[in-house]
Amino acid sequence: MATRKIELTKLSLDNLPPADPGRLYEIADALVPGLRVRVADSEVAAGRFKGKASIITFVLVARFPPSLNPTRRALGRYSRDGGPLTLQAARDKAREWKGKIAEGIDPAAELRQQQDAQEAAQREADRQREAEEEATRNQKSLKDLLDTYDKEVLVHHKRGAATRRALDGKKGLLKNFVDRDPGSLTRSEIVLVLKQRAKVASTSANRQLAYASAFFNWCVDEELLTANPVEKVKKPSKENVRDRHHSLAELREIWAATKKLGYPFEQLYQLLIVLPMRREENAAIPIAELDLASDEAPHDAVWTLPSGRTKKANALRVPLSSLARSIIKEAIAHPDRPKESEFVFTTTAETSVSGFSKAKKRLDAEIQAARVKLAATQGTKAVTMPHWILHDLRTTFNTLACDVLGVDAHVADRILNHVATATTSKVMRIYNRAELFEPRKKALQAWADLLEREVINGVRAEGFATALAA
To answer: For site-directed labelling of 372, which of 160, 219, 264, 459 has its Cα 20 to 30 A away?
Structure first.
């Protein structure tokens, strides 16, 4: 049957009947040679065009290169509702294809290539998007790395918790960067924060830099980062060796002020004066480390400090003077101490005491209040005690024990559990590793006797004691 040719219109297309079942028919467009519509046997089920052909496809009949025989290529399906392929769009597309054929180009093959390229580009875009999404899911923030560092490294360090606070705690160097991609951190932005920290706490800023550098070096070693952003950054502040030590008169003031603090800081600060170990060592004494001996032999009391709780991992047997023993026993028996706790100094039962900064401020305030009251009775102006820190109590012991009591320097050094420096001779380094238990026991008892005589008994005779009690 010959193909009918008419000038196709939208009306004629909309009203084309479906083909006979299992058959197709075509109608050629009289305006564009080679353009036809192919009508299938399906019909519209309902609506305005019910019973009309539902599938009408535009085709172009031409000799597509390199073939010499005419073939049909589909241009697309007709859209009654004004979709992308209207009658006019089909005629324009047919003319475009015929122009390409005249140039020896197969437009259908070209279209397939374009479609293949678009599909390939889309697949690549999808792959990249999925890769980026996967990378985003797997991307670790700085906090993630800090958490891993904490679990794998800091947990094994005695001061691990303090180190973590210095890194991203309330005043931590990296606090403002925890949600960042660690690889995006720059040297300049960290140094800026470091300089700001140094303005208010120079020594603390130096420590924070050291902790941050150790953390970033670990990240590099674990191949989590390619570089340490604070490598070769200089300390923001010059540190001076502290030489502040108290006079016996100042110790009397401090001792009197401790009595206003109550448990646990009253006994803890007194013990720091009597037993010049490091603050963290004294503050976290478990009762299990103590052998307080009997009241008949109080001088046999000893504290066995394990290596895991000392700064340089040096275990030490610490002889307890009678005064140190009595302070510890008072703390253990104090009604405010949770009796189920393993620690001598605690407020929570589960952990050793904390809150040193607030307690030190209270202590300083009590000292100053006593000075003000004493000055008022004397008609003079109160002078503030020169700045001091708890570590100065260790320097005070070292100074007064050697200068006043005549304790040998190496014995005092062993009491403080110092590590001999590289400048010390080899013989002295070996000698200083000796326990020297008996010399230390004698020195600490002499120190306790001096304190009882000149400080504790002296408190009762000083005017500021009356002022504190007021």
So the answer is: 264
HEC secondary structure over 210-268: HHHHHHHHHHHHCCCCCCCCCCCCCCCCCCCCCCCCCCHHHHHHHHHHHCCCCCCHHHH
> Which parts of the chain have pLDDT scores under 70?
1-2, 131-139, 239-242, 311-313, 419-434, 459-470
H/E stretch holding 333 reads helix 322-333
Same domain membership, residue 150 and residue 84: no
Same domain, 212 and 295: no
**Domain span including residue 162:** 142-221
User: Cα(470)–Cα(459) distance, rounded to whole angstroms?
Assistant: 14
Round to whole Å and give the CA distance between 353 and 281.
11
- Give which of 42, 39, 33 is closest to 94, Cα–Cα: 33
Yes or no: say if 101 and 107 are a contact pair by the CB < 8 Å rule: yes
* Gyration radius (Cα) of the chain, Å: 44
What pLDDT shows up at residue 8?
A: 94
Q: Which residues contact 356 (CB under 8 A, 6 or more apart)?
A: 279, 283, 390
Pairing of strands 302-305, 316-319: antiparallel
Decide: 212 and 230 in contact? Cβ < 8 Å.
yes
- Is 68 inside any structural domain? yes
Is 290:406 a contact under the CB 8 Å cutoff? Answer: no
Q: How many domains does the chain have?
A: 3
Place of tokens 């140039």: 103
Pull the structure tokens for residue 401: 């024990």
pLDDT for position 129: 81
Q: Determine the pLDDT at residue 337.
A: 96
Of 271, 293, 295, give the one whose Cα is nearest residue 284: 271
Token pair for 276: 């010049």
Helix, coil or strand: residue 317: strand
Long-range contacts of 317-322, Cβ-Cβ distance < 8 Å, separation of 24 or more? 317/435, 317/437, 318/275, 318/277, 318/440, 319/437, 319/440, 319/441, 319/444, 319/445, 320/275, 320/290, 320/292, 320/444, 321/274, 321/275, 321/444, 321/445, 321/447, 321/448, 322/298, 322/445, 322/448
User: Is 88 a domain residue?
Assistant: yes
| Residues 465, 364 share a domain | yes
Q: Is residue 418 part of a domain?
A: yes
285 falls within a domain: yes
The reported pLDDT for the residue numbered 138 is 61
Structure tokens at 254: 């401090």
- Residue entry with tokens 């002078």: 383
- The predicted-structure confidence for 275-318, as pLDDT tens digits, reads as follows 999 999 999 999 999 999 888 888 889 999 887 777 666 778 99
Model pTM score: 0.56
